[in-house]
Amino acid sequence: MKHPIIGFHKDENDDWIAELECGHNYHVRHNPPWKLRPWVISEAGRNKYLGTTLNCLKCERKEPRDN
Questions:
Q1: Quick one: pLDDT at residue 17?
Q2: Cβ atoms within 10 A of the Cβ of 28, count?
Q3: Is 56 exposed, middle or buried (0-12, 13-18, 19+ CB in 10 A)?
Q4: Tens digit of pLDDT at every position of the chain (67 positions)
Q5: CB-based contacts of 31: which residues, under 8 Å, 6+ apart?
Q6: DSSP labels for 3-44?
Q7: Phi and psi for 5 in degrees, rounded to 5?
Q8: What is the pLDDT of residue 49?
Q9: How does strand 2-10 pair with strand 16-20?
Q10: What local confidence, expressed as pLDDT, does residue 33 receive?
Q11: How far is the C-alpha of 20 from the C-alpha of 5, rounded, in Å?
Q12: Which of 3, 31, 33, 40 has CB atoms 3.0–4.6 Å from 20's, for a disulfide?
C-alpha cells in the first residue's frame, strides 16, 4: 500500500526516517553504493519529497502505527 510522506526525523543512529501518513515510519538512508538517496541529506531535498508516496510493508502486514 502506498502512502505519502508527511515528515522526517532521525533515529538513534542518525539515519533519516520518513514519516508516512498511515502512521508508520520508513528508513530513507543515503548509504552509497547500496542506497542512493542524496536528496535526504539536505532540508531542501527532504522538503521536495514531502507528499511522495512510498510502499508501506507494515500496512500490508497490518502492523500497528509507529507513532
A1: 97
A2: 19
A3: buried
A4: 999 999 999 999 999 999 999 999 999 998 888 889 999 999 999 999 999 999 999 999 999 999 6
A5: none
A6: EEEEEEEE-TTS-EEEEETTS-EEE---BTTTB--GGGGSHH
A7: -80, 130
A8: 97
A9: antiparallel
A10: 85
A11: 5
A12: 3
Angstrom distances, CA of residue 30 to CA of 11, 22, 33, 42: 14, 23, 9, 11
Q: What is the pLDDT of residue 60?
A: 96
Q: How far is 45 from 6, CA to CA, in rounded Å?
A: 14
Residue 23 has a CB neighbour count (10 Å cut-off) of 16
Return contacts of 42-47, CB within 8 angstroms, 24+ apart.
46/8, 46/16
22 touches 1 (CB < 8 A): yes
